[in-house]
Amino acid sequence: MTIDALYPPLINGEFKAATAETFPAVNAATGEHLADLTASGQAEIDAAVAAALAAFPAWSRTPAAQRARLLLKVADWLEDNTDRLVQIDALDIGRTVFELPQDYRQAIGQYRFFAAAIMTHDGWTNSVQGGWALAKREPLGVVGQIIPWNVPAIMVSFKLAPALAAGNTVVLKPDENASLSTMELAKHLAEIFPPGVVNVVPGFGETAGAALTALPDVAKLAFTGSTEVGRLIAHAGASRLVPVTLELGGKSPNIVFLDIDDIDAVVDNTTFAATFCNGQSCLAGTRLFVHSDIYQDFLSRLTTAFRAIRVGSPLDPATRLGCLVSPAQGERVTSYIESGRAEANLVTGGGRVEVPGNEAGWFIEPTIFETSNDTRIAQEEIFGPVLSVIRWTDFDTMIEQANDVEYGLASGIYTSNLRNAMRTADRLQAGNVWVNQYVNLADGSPFGGYKNSGLGREVCKETLDMYTQLKSIMLAEQVPAPFYV
Ligand code: NAP
Ligand code: MG
């Protein structure tokens, strides 16, 4: 597998930077230097937005069928190159080679879904007296997109596929901690799309990201990341009156009822929900509400399951939990664990694991705390393999607590009773409710958050509405007498 020494930005079909400033990509587990990337600044962002603006008229007039055809090529290329890209991500961000292929399957699904969906993304027509009324959907223009590091292939697909399908041109800023696989993909995007249609600018949020949100020629902002930065993006959009889509943090509840019929299956599912992505997922099921009558049995099986998770090198196919993306993330997660030790009961985990040959990596033991819903570890997004288990007895109180958090992204319900599933799904304040299987995201199923988890929906047909605006056109057969006659 080859990694380039230097990755400049993709601007107007070429890989070229105005600045010589770079930043390193490092192996999350070993600290080894992998490559350098251009730290895009104002000059690169200006050039990328100018290229996207110049490419917009022709791309927006390109028939949807042709745009779809190009998106299908991206999907095919990702399918052919998954193994290589998985290796790159594993080195770059510390996720496991066991888990990463699923990211690519999901990403590939997005390009194919939006290639198909755009073909039926209709406006509206009707007959009116003496003519026709119609509304056509038009793309917005240049879209500025900013993504985080946890699932790069998925994040890129959630952003590029609908925006390009709808006829917009794009400037995408990947995360400083996870740009390599995106820059490798960019090489292929440069071959598929006309120059300027997709521009990819590696760099830092405070400079490249902020510059992208501020330029008047950017007609829409789409962001995935923390709630804190999401607010900055929303302010930038508000100041120029451009639409903003935000996918932000989560602190999702998993609710276990007394009537589950396979306790070990539910233990498996809730363990997965809290630890996949090394716990670094906005979707993670990090608050587990277990019914009091099965609480002790459940907790003891859950503890066994957490202790059985194999922590190790991201590159070892037997590893189920790799390392956190960076030392900064390691320290953040550790400080939450310290706060948990002070305010809750540590059931298992809590330590850092030494993985020989990977001493620079922040490998964290899968960790369970018994707590109440009002502690800091139960309220704040930790972004590590740390689960808060909460005991419940009364249904209404449990629902109140499940909703008593600033976020509302996802949720899980485990029950064999339809009525329990229905009344819980109905009352949870969450964009996604999964009954009996966590992270059951199908292509086309709306994904997005309530409350501070975001604005707008991705993955679904409605996403295309968010990348277009409606133009209403009235066609009269002849010039009629004015209305006021
Ligand atoms: P973050 O700090 O908000 O960073 C996300 C992106 O925003 C990065 O590319 C970052 O650049 C950039 N950025 C930072 N400051 C900026 C600014 N002032 N202006 C413009 N861009 C700026 O998020 P993170 O902590 O790295 O990522 C984890 C967060 O993402 C979690 O809260 C998680 O829940 C959320 N997330 C949400 C979803 C979802 O779909 N809802 C999915 C995945 C993750 P840098 O490269 O410099 O960091
Ligand atoms: Mg970051």
How much of the sequence is in beta strands? Answer: 15-25%
Question: Domains counted in the coordinates: how many?
Answer: 2
Q: Could you tell me how far the N terminus lies from the C terminus, measured between alpha carbons in angstroms?
A: 76 Å
Note the main sheet. Answer: 7 strands, mixed
- How many helical elements? 14
Cofactors and ligands: NADP nicotinamide-adenine-dinucleotide phosphate, magnesium ion
* CATH H-level superfamily title of the largest domain: Aldehyde Dehydrogenase, Chain A, domain 1
CATH topology (fold) name of the largest domain: Aldehyde Dehydrogenase, Chain A, domain 1
Report the CATH C-level class of the largest domain. Alpha Beta
Helix content: 25-40%
Task: Please tell me what the overall shape is.
Answer: globular
Q: What is the topology, as strand order, of the major beta sheet?
A: 15-18-19-14-13-21-22
What number is the mean pLDDT? 97
The CATH architecture designation of the largest domain is 3-Layer(aba) Sandwich
Supply the helix-strand structural class.
Answer: alpha/beta
Number of strands: 25
Mind telling me the C-alpha Rg? 24 Å
Unreliable stretches (pLDDT < 50, length at least 5) are none
